[in-house]
Amino acid sequence: MEAINILYFLSSIWILSRVSAQHTIPANQPLTDGSTIISSDGKFKLEFFSPGTSGKRYLGILFNKVTVQTVVWVANRDNPLNDTSSALNLTRQGILTLLNGSGRIIWSSNSTRHGKNPVAQLLDSGNLVVRDAAEDKPQNYLWQSFDNPGDPALPGMKVGINLKTGFHRSLSSWKSTNDPSRGQFTWTFDTGGFVQTFIMNGSIELYRARQWNGRVFPNAPSSDTSWNGYNYTYLSDPNEISFMYELTDSSIIARVVMQLNGFLQLSEWNNQTQNWDDVVSAPADNCDIYGQCHSYGLCNSGNSPICRCLDKFEPKDPTEWARGNWSGGCVRKTAILNCQKEVKFFKYQGIKLPDTRFSWYSGGVTLNACEELCLRNCSCMAYANPDITGTNEDCLLWFDELMDIREFGATGQDIYVKLDSSELGNSSTGKVKKLRISLPLAALGLFLVLCLIMYIRQKKKNQQYFRKGRRPRISEMLCTKERKDKELDLPLFDFETISHTTNNFSLNNKLGEGGFGPVYKGMLEDGQEIAVKRLSRYSAQGTDEFKNEVIFIAKLQHRNLVKLLGCCIQAEKRCWFMSTCQIIAWIGSFLIGGHCLIGLSASILLMELLADFSIFIKTQDCG
């Protein structure tokens, strides 16, 4: 009998030694207190431990090559064990269970996924996973400790939210150095508006990290995603929102910890001092305390006092503000009372964008379109593009007081705050607005100047015709479909000549007035008498009427109709873009026994009178 007991004892030691030498736990081969699972690279270990001076026992993952006890994950952090008689077991279904000495389950992985041949493995990343023995793809893990973080985040561990399940991966501090149960401080993601992260002291905001802007890790002293041996990644898609950092130097041992004093700390192990060195810490200074300068207050830890109001704002309570009590915040010097009031935007540069829990975000919206959206919404207080990489056009609108702003300088961002237009007389935004107005006006002015130049050139060209003793032909001036018709090839007269022949349209030369304007008696330089019809500005005759009348009179031959001599056109013609030329006005008339000349200028009709004007009353209407 004694020999059997000795054999059983030796076999148990052999089994335990095999477990401790491996980095996996097969099903139904429990890990007992005193045994250890070590990752294949030797960096991490899974074992039972007692934190600090506590006599309680916990199952956890620790750094293996660090001389100071450093825990990275605790299974039963809220349910300690009282003795060393406990064991961790993996069931045939792939569920990890922690049993006390009496066989009661103290903690369980509660996995809903099962495998045919499950195995638990401690990876080189410090992640304890349960997987099928034939499957090692991360997406097929049955369970992993990285989905249930404690106070630290290790390289490769995601912190964030699963948007489909609503599951949060948040860091929570220990209650004390002897008690790993959940403390009062947590680092968590908030998706109330545009995504941001907070350190919460219970339900109170202690610190708000700057929003992910495409480059910067919260409070990292760099504006690049690769910094001092670290790469960090922000993921936002329909499935999840998460943050993760990784090491580019495998020799570095690092961790991000939610400390029990409320600080979020990135630390590296120093082999020389055999201690942890703090690299980055948040809150880093007084300006990192949430809402230090309250609404519309701007914090700068290099100033004294550290708080001041944004430009164009003033303290709500100047007396308390002067005493260093900034809880009242700041208000606009000129209030925006309603939508009817004229408003503009003032640009603030190099800042930490305000709290975005009461904001609206949309991708693919230009900055100008974002401004218009804010202008059209009475409740919109400010807008910005949260991305500083220049690769994305995003729009972020704020609909509440702007809270928790601080100066960041070169690594900060720009925001445009709505103000009364009277406050922005000489602002850069006002200059931009003036530029937007002046540029179209300048373009219009240039267009008019070009038109004037073309008009002058055409006028000089016409004058050259007259000086040469040759009158331009109507076919050279009109853009009708029949411009090549020789019957329409009528001479043109300039307005000065016609005005001279009628004694400047004297009333003494007026013969009568018809529906489209008055008719005047005139005489050309060669002594030829003519009738001139000048179109009234109130005439309803238009382009089509003139065109039809010219064609009709020029072609029509009748003994009771006078011959059409020509016309006077005083206007630029733009044949290149219209089907017919645009001319100020058109006149057509008939005269018995003489010649009729259609014209305009303010528009003029010339008619040669072959009969004496004493018989004019007997003629057909020339007006």
From TrEMBL:
Residues 505-623 form the Protein kinase domain. Its EC number is 2.7.11.1. It catalyses: L-seryl-[protein] + ATP = O-phospho-L-seryl-[protein] + ADP + H(+); L-threonyl-[protein] + ATP = O-phospho-L-threonyl-[protein] + ADP + H(+). The chain crosses the membrane at residues 437-456, 583-606. Residues 22-143 form the Bulb-type lectin domain. Pfam families: B_lectin, PAN_2, PK_Tyr_Ser-Thr, S_locus_glycop. The keyword Nucleotide-binding applies. The keyword Signal applies. This is non-specific serine/threonine protein kinase. It comes from Solanum tuberosum (Potato). The lineage of its organism: Eukaryota, Viridiplantae, Streptophyta, Embryophyta, Tracheophyta.
